[in-house]
Amino acid sequence: MKEVMTAALKTAEGKFEVKQVERVKIPAEDWVLARVRVSGICGTDLRHWKKHEPELECKIMGHELAGEVVEVGSEVTNVKPGDRVVIETLLGDGDCEWCRIQQYNLCPNLYKVRMETVSRAFAEYIIGPANKFYVLPENVSFEEATVLDTFAVCLHALQQSGLKINDQIVIVGAGPIGIGQLQLAKLSGADVIVVDVVDSSLDMATDLGAVAVINSEKEDVYSRVMELTKGRGADITFECVGGEHMQQTLELATTVTRIGGKVVIVGGFDKGKMPIELNWQQLQLSQLQLVFSASYAFWNIDPEIKICLDLLEKGKLNARKMITHSFPLAQINEAFETANAKSETGALFVALIH
């Protein structure tokens, strides 16, 4: 096997340079080497796009991927060379209290560990512990499997929310996370209203079963939600935008949620302190719950990504419809431009073919 591999490295200005680097190698007998076949671009990736981040310069990024097993250590029994797999990209240090109870999404060293190993999707090869590799059923393609990380994030948020059948749900944000959240909420028996500013994303939400969609640039969201919920408000609202828009989207989420309801914060915050003005007195008087959801891990005895893989295999989740664009890895910058300009391009989930 060759000693180098192709990878997209983050540059000082925040774009990518595709070049040859040293190939990763299996460090232990219970680890696996896989050839990446497809990786994906998500909202978290886009928050790093064109940003000067010295700590990420010359690093390999990406955390949504599927591939083919190339080599396994002598202690690996769950996969073999040639297997088509999805790779879970959350890996903690394995020693902390949270890792010991399979809550590795809360590991204090999560990002340090994962970004040195499993969270390097924009490359030709990847390594990880065997328990992070799941064999794909014949009816699940590499492209569809790449969306499983997104679905797992949504499933974790749904589990955190305590959503019940017949709940009235508002989802703020119709990106990949919002559309994934919609599908899982519908699957759980909820009625879902989706809010966004991109008409193509709202059209997809309608196609995937939203009872109503609201363009917040064209309609008054509060009035429309109250009309749809008969003046009550949402039982649960999922904030699925995050980033620089959190002031507006979190405030909106709290406004459209009923007294005694929940707001689940799925969208990611940027680093550092972020002042957000909310009507805190009203939130307290309404006994509104703010629930934070971070990535995914296990729920009870099952890995959440495996639960989503089972649902995808059974045809209960639609990943194929979410993949709107595909580019070869060599065109990663063009792919990011397309994903970033979704109002013009209609992009939702953009796949990179390796």
Automatic annotation (TrEMBL):
Q: Which UniProt keywords apply?
A: Metal-binding, Oxidoreductase, Zinc
Instruction: Offer an example of a GO molecular function term for this protein.
Output: zinc ion binding
In its keyword annotation, does this UniProt entry include Metal-binding? yes
Keyword Lipid biosynthesis present in the record's keywords: the answer is: no
Pfam families reported in the protein's UniProt record: ADH_N, ADH_zinc_N
Q: Where is the Enoyl reductase (ER) domain?
A: 14-350
Protein origin, superkingdom = Bacteria
Q: Which cofactor does it need?
A: Zn(2+)
Name the family: Belongs to the zinc-containing alcohol dehydrogenase family.
Listed name of the protein: Alcohol dehydrogenase
What organism is listed for this UniProt entry? Pedobacter steynii
